[in-house]
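Journal club side-thread
Mid-discussion, someone asked how the predicted structure for our own chain would compare to the paper's figures. Pasting it here so we can look after the session.
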Amino acid sequence: MYRAIYAVLLRRLPAEGAHRSAFWLIRAAASVPGLAWALRRVLGPRDPALRVRALGLDFPGPLGLAAGFDKDGEGVTGLAALGFGFVEVGTVTAQPQPGNPKPRMFRFPEERALVNRMGFNNHGAAALAARLRALRARPGYRPVVGVNIGKTKVVGDGEAVADYVTSARLVADVADYVVVNVSSPNTPGLRDLQSVDKLRPLLTAVREALDEASPRRRVPLLVKIAPDLADEDIDAVADLALDLGLDGIIATNTTISRAGLRDGEAVAAAGPGGLSGAPLKSRALAVLRRLHARTGDRLVLIAAGGIETADDARERLAAGATLLQAYTAFIYQGPGWVRRIHADLAQRTSAADDSLPT
């Protein structure tokens, strides 16, 4: 049904407009009394073989929603009802900002890919924190929610650390974990923060801010890296994460490469931005394998980038991932996709008499 709706309606809308429409439907469904509970009963991961214990948290399933879909934490209940084992909201910045000019999202359906240059459009960390605080106060089921934080565009490089620290303090009491995003290609200069000499003081300051703002609960801290890093830089980030006692790394963000996109005219029309989806699959897997070879089981590795099938999911888990994230495949395949991936993983896990990483 979703594919029919996509073919007839959603693909005819501008990509960002289609996203807003679909997201509105998810939120509307969750607002109907009892419907989120019913959807979660049908679509949610329930097989004990899918449960993952990581970051000091219990995940009902390994597949979560990557940051970028729900930037302001407006649809967490509905997204969790669709079966995601966790939801990462953001990227959020210390100051509200509109993001880049439109159009800023482009579909490549033949390659099952997206290009976006959204530019961290969000209502600000304070607004997100208030929304998540209200969610925590409600009775009933509460999904695992991570918060992805980035740099406000108007903030200069010299003030970047303070900008991240502001966001970290604001979300510390409402985030199940926090991710420092230094790898989006859509904020000028942001990826420069991935160099170890700049990343060390940034992560150290964010860790201290989280500890001060949440003295009774240690908030897990992760960093999200780009697939475009050279191998030696991946090793350097892995070593830094171990040295600083980070909890994990997300591999990977979108890529500035256009490898795998065949329509040169459409690529030119889309312009700059981050590519996600199937063309990113092989590089994201290679980065994951390199990180695991460097860190072993000392860090939680969350795999993202080009995960479309249960085989993809199992390959990432076998390569060292503890958890998985997706975005683009969810856009193309619809709300039933999450349940199908989890169901296939559970079936194969039971058949192999094995369990997912803990």
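Post-session note: The chain has a mean pLDDT of 90.
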